[in-house]
Amino acid sequence: MENDTYYMGLALEEAKKAGQKGEVPIGCVIVAETGKVISVAHNLTISLADPTGHAEILAIRKAAKIYGNYRLPGLILYATIEPCIMCMGAIVHARLSRVVFGARDEKWGGAGSLYNLAVDSRLNHALDVVPGVCADECRRLIQDFFKSRRQEQKAVKKAGLSQ
Q1: Active site residue 56
Q2: Average pLDDT over residues 107-127
Q3: Residue 1: its pLDDT value, please?
Q4: Given this model, what pLDDT does residue 85 score?
Q5: Whose C-alpha in 37, 44, 95, 160 is 20 to 30 A from the C-alpha of 86?
Q6: In Å, how far are 30, 53, 128, 149 from 12, measured between CA atoms?
């Protein structure tokens, strides 16, 4: 658990980078079983104009390029928010061994909240999932981001009405 907290801290730093760019603040780190960080990424869906520009997908792409293989057994993925069903699909295809995430995503979660692709016996790969690492900090970061966005939208709306 101590290592999980350390790597989630790295994922949180990535998430903050996304937020500074106006992206939804989600970060991801992929780590080898030895503890070596293989890849890091944060959401870039807006910047890339790409609905697949999620932190997890970008980190998996980087790791696959480094390894020269689309299969990444033995690697651990850390994400600040529960991976969505698209990301969990990629995680299963990549054969990652473990997913550790911070806050649950009740609307899109693919690792236990809405769906649980990690243990679906119909798929050819199962993996371990560890939820709730640094959950409060991960949840707070994303909640603050959306709260700020709503306040900005209200201010813009109000300014538009008063002109």
Answers
A1: yes
A2: 92
A3: 62
A4: 96
A5: 37
A6: 13, 17, 21, 19
* Residue written as token pair 């790409």: 50
Task: Count CA atoms closer than 13 A to 158's CA, side-chain side.
Answer: 6
Quickly tell me which residue has 């990629």 as its tokens.
Answer: 90
CA distances from 20 to 59, 68, 101, 103, 145 (A): 19, 31, 21, 20, 10
Q: Compute the distance between CA of residue 5 and CA of residue 31 in angstroms, rounded to an integer.
A: 13
Round to whole Å and give the CA distance between 78 and 65. 18
154/28 Cα distance (integer angstroms): 31
Q: Which residues have a Cβ under 8 Å from the Cβ of 25 and sit 6 or more positions away? A: 15, 16, 18, 19, 42, 43, 80, 141, 142, 145
Q: Looking at residue 163, what is its pLDDT?
A: 54
Strands 98-103 and 128-130, by their bridges, are parallel
Contact present, 28 and 56 (Cβ < 8 Å) = yes
Selecting among 14, 23, 56, 82, the annotated active-site residue is 56
The pTM assigned to this predicted structure is 0.93
How does pLDDT run across 141-162, given as a tens digit for each residue? 999 999 988 888 877 777 776 5
